[in-house]
Amino acid sequence: MCKDEMINPFKIVCIIPARGKSKRLPRKNVIDFLGKPLLAHSILAAKQSIYIDDIFVTTDDNDIAEVAILYGAKVIKRPEELSSDFATTAAAIRHALNNEQVSYLNPTAVLTLQPTNPLRPENLIDQCVEAFLNSESDIDSLISVSINRHKIGKIKENVFEPLTYKLGERSQDMIPSYYENGLIYITKTAVILNKNDLFGKKIRPIIVDSPFSDIDIDTKDDLDWAEFIGKKYNSKL
Q: Which residues make Cβ contacts (< 8 Å) with residue 178, sequence separation at least 6?
């Protein structure tokens, strides 16, 4: 155990979804990123937390499973139907929670880390877990968000319509809006099991202002940019 149950009765497991069938960047979860497989960075980040009871990687891929074990995570083999482009992260996490390796721990909540977001500010996981534990009892989940500084709109019938601002409005006068940055998800186990959902109805946001917030690796260009940012800010990886 990584935390004292006499002080905190909550059990939190980390589950990392990492399927092998990436198309835009083949084998991305095991591709080299700053000297380690991409997946390894999320495993190591979870291992640094004082709150995480155990770490699991759910995958359909043997190479990913080997990397997970090498870096200290346990592996849950994911079935084919949960490994397609149409399968949701929530469904994969739910499947993992029903695996006996996880279910016997009876976790109160799940920390979901996406391997495509390998750069996280130091201590972010523990800060988010503490915020989750200190939240109201009826909160369903906690996610990390970042402020949106762009003027976002949609195109409908070839006409642009603003969504986050009024046409002609100055950026500094806009009502603040935020985007889900993918760095951290913490969800009550019951929400995932009962609703097949990572969010629930009441979501607590944690605002993260970091150059890492925009890193999400799905293409070779994303990978190159992430390596540049990782080296520039000398993050502890």
A: 145, 146, 147, 148, 205, 207
Banded model confidence at residue 153, pLDDT cuts 50, 70, 90: very high
> CA dihedral in degrees (11, 190, 86, 221; nearest 10)?
-40
Inter-residue contact 113 to 14 (CB < 8 Å): yes
State CA 80 to chain mean position distance: 22
pLDDT in tens, 89-117: 999 999 999 999 999 999 999 999 999 99
Q: For the whole model, what pTM was predicted?
A: 0.92
Going by C-beta distance under 8 Å and a sequence separation of 6 or more, which residues neighbour residue 41? 33, 34, 115, 118, 119, 237
53 vs 129: CA distance, rounded Å: 12
Structure tokens at 98: 């029903």
Tell me phi and psi for residue 46, to 5 degrees: -65, -35
State how far Cα 75 lies from the chain centre: 17
